[in-house]
Amino acid sequence: MAIIGCSHTDRYRAKFLKNTEPATGAVRVTWMGTAGLYIFDGETGIYIDPFVSRYGLFKVGFGAALKPQNTLIDEWIRITGGQHAAAILVSHSHYDHVLDAPRFAEKTGAMIVGSQSTANVALGAGIPAHQIKIIKDRDTVTIGNFEITFIQSVHSPALFGRIPWTGTVDAPLPQPAPASSYREGGAYAIWVKHPKGAFLHYGSPGVKPGIFEGIHADAVFLSIGGRKDTASLIDHVITPLHPSTVIPIHFDDLFGPVDKDVKPLINVKMNEFWAEMENKPFEVRTLPVGEARVLFK
Ligand SMILES: [Zn+2]
User: Fold this and answer.
1) Cα-to-centroid distance, 269 and ligand 1 (Å)
2) Distance between Cα 248 and ligand 1 center (Å)
3) Which site among 46, 169, 238, 275 is 20 to 30 Å from 124 CA-CA?
4) Over 90: is that where the pLDDT of 173 sits?
């Protein structure tokens, strides 16, 4: 039974990022569930890991061919206001990060930016090569006022202590395909600098000490589903970046529909997360699903 003020849902709701309205020129963020974000600064829109075509654990685990769901993708482009998005950044090429990226690119005209494996997913789904930008460790791309650097990190041991679907996608992958065809392809932290502030998107909570030396982010979007523990993420991801705000993502149950109440993923240990986040030199904030919030003003 939920105890008032202590349950995950109460904490999640109490900590929503405040929507303080600035005059103009704010950078806003909309959470799409999992690691999916839409970032908009009034001029340029960027999706990161947009994924809305969710399938149940049974279909995913038993190798059903997963189709991007056009109706949901259209709906989310409308919700986020991303009709003219300029780019789609992909942290790694597991299906829950990349499956929908080609359809978002097709419908918005945005450039897909990610690893060679991500490029092969895009090519297989019919996206032309000129709409795909392949990055390697520490490559930087500039899109509007956003300066984006991909930093190679490691995937978390998310499945019974092991990294699921390792390896690379070595040839164009036609859709639909089963989850197991979407190999990781290298996991990247995505560091985004903007005149209003810098943030880091951490798509998978693996730990690789030392990669964030000399890097600062005001806000960290921290995937926490499948993490080993929270303390090592604090030590090796959050502390080196000196953020003022940490925003957990990818803790929702990706095997069910996106829901405003955000049911946590099985085994995600939200109580451990909230306990470890007490009394830290940064704030923890959460995002409602499908509502833009001011990130930087
Ligand atoms: Zn993954």
Assistant:
1) 18
2) 16
3) 46
4) yes
